[in-house]
Queue: 2 jobs
Job 1
Amino acid sequence: MVQWLVSGAAFLLALLAWVRCRRLSGRLGRVTRAYWELRYEHDQLRERVDRLEPGGAAKEPAAPVPAAPASFVPLSALRR
């Protein structure tokens, strides 16, 4: 009888942990999506501010750094 109670308690604990994990996974997805949207908006606003500043047009763009073959290319480098 004790074994059934321990097994049932372990099953309920595992079920509660699984439900919590599913909720946290959804929350992590929403937070990640919000982070990337905010980062995109931040870059867009920075570009707008650079265009509106009086000295912003006089700045020379930085020379692109040549990438090694088959290396990671960040998305910010592709926008330029």
Job 2
Amino acid sequence: MNTKSKTYIILISIAAVLIATLVFQVDWDARAVRKQLSGLVEVIEKEGRVSTFDSLARSRKFSGYFAENAKVEYLPGRRLPADKDALSAGFLSAWGQIETLSIGLSRLEVDVSESRNTADSTVNASVSVQFTAGEPSGDTQSYRIKWVKVDGDWLIEMVISMGRV
């Protein structure tokens, strides 16, 4: 075997070890929870006027991120209805009053249980909103989110507002 062949074998072996290390050290469930949260943010964000059809589609997508009878506290002491249909209708009503809405997430931490069926996460959400009638406003809140795995999908079971950051 010549030197060139040995070098290729060594490089391929090192690459295989690095790839295997990455694959086995990644917490795929925590990654899936992060992806779900990012998807939810994309559904909620708004840039200007949106058609009625798009609004209805987004309201259905919005409720799809939540488990049945999820408890959602968006501000301390202020909750959304627990029923998925009511969540969808509430989203549609609120979203219709908003001209633009952007959300930035920071300090996202995800802790998946040993059973791999539940997870807890904490996140700071910075929101900038422009209502159709009114001045722009913004706020940053901290949230604790409880997740449950249903048929392979991570769904929100509970959102608890931890207050202003």
